[in-house]
Design goal:
This protein has about 450 residues and is mainly α. It has 17 helices and no strands. Helix content is about 80%, strand content about 0%.
Amino acid sequence: MKKYSRISSRFREQLRHELQSWQADGIINTDQSAAISQRYKLDQTARETSNILLFAIYIIGSVLVAAGVISFVAAHWDMITPSLKVALIVAFMLVCHIAGFYLWKISAKSPRLGHALIVLGTLVFGANIGLLAQIFHIKANFYNGLFAWAIGAIVMAYALESIPNAVIAIIVSFIAFCGWLDDYPHTLCYYTFVAAAAFLPFACLRRSVLTFALSLLAIGISVIVCAGLDTEQFSAFLLATAGVGLFYFGLGLLVNLSVNFKAFAGPAMVLGTVLTAFNAYFFSFRELAEEIPLDPMDSWMWTVPVASAYIIAAMFWAYTFRSAMANRRLRFISISVLVSAVLAASVPLSTYLTGGYHLFHVILFNILSLVLAVGLTAAGFVALDRRLFWTGILFTALIITSRFLEYETDLLLKAAVFTACGISLILAGVGFEGYLKKRRLTNE
């Protein structure tokens, strides 16, 4: 079932119930129902759901057992010699890993319990790092221990193809990165490139959408945080956010062309659209737009990851632009994201060249926000997708509401505008639902 392994369990469960109705209504016969059931492995949906629930129970139970053991040891911690302390915490970790490996990979008698014990062993490994530092009075920055924990977790993830271990590695490493960057804000951000090299291959190897999305967040946010802390200027934040948004969406367009990794396209495009929309909306406020001008800087280290994001994004967009324009569903969103991100990125450079803030920049960011809103609405209308349509409509309402709350206007005018917005939302919903119904009847 490799071809259908990325179809959601919810869809397959709904399909299983629908097949019974279709067969009862005479739409399909018994043989066709059996063929569809076999094609999508519908007989396995109940077992898959119970397996996920069982794995979650094992994880929670293992953590509770570990908490109980640690609490018992902590109650007698002062009476235990350092050598015995080390032996206890190391033995506990090894027991978890060995027992988990045996149950999961060797005997395969209880693979989910074994996997849960492996994850527990990784959590204990992180606790052991802190306990060993306490036992031997090792004074060091906390993020060094977190980096060591993340390395151990990602090694276990690759060795055992364990997605939970990869998730632990991503989260822990990003927390460690934030601590490291807080102490060294004006140094090259190596984390971005290391995270991309360590986490993205695992996501592709396991075809894990969760790991892929978390990896993108860790990579992209590290670029933005690095730019913000290195310069303490909104201009660098704007440039970084626009570049990462282009990178996300361009990557989504690229993987959308792939058969094996098509499931990665949605999260990447959503992240790119959200980041681009946030950028345009954030700087559409006048007080924030006034902080955009680029001031002289002592450090330019932040430009390395930011420039890398733009270069890679340009390669992605150049390769996929023609196919994106040919796709009716992606055409409007792609154009709106590209235009909004590129024009937003040009604002800090224009303020640097012209020497300051202009009211035109506020107007531009409001226009870019509306461009994104219109692009989402148009894409939803063309693709008959309620999510895209309503996202665009609600984003438009948010922009209009924000402007009337930001600026002092007559209460009667505010009342009229808000009433008009509410009526427009209702009419848009009624019209769109009517259009969907008409298209369905036409197709039938």
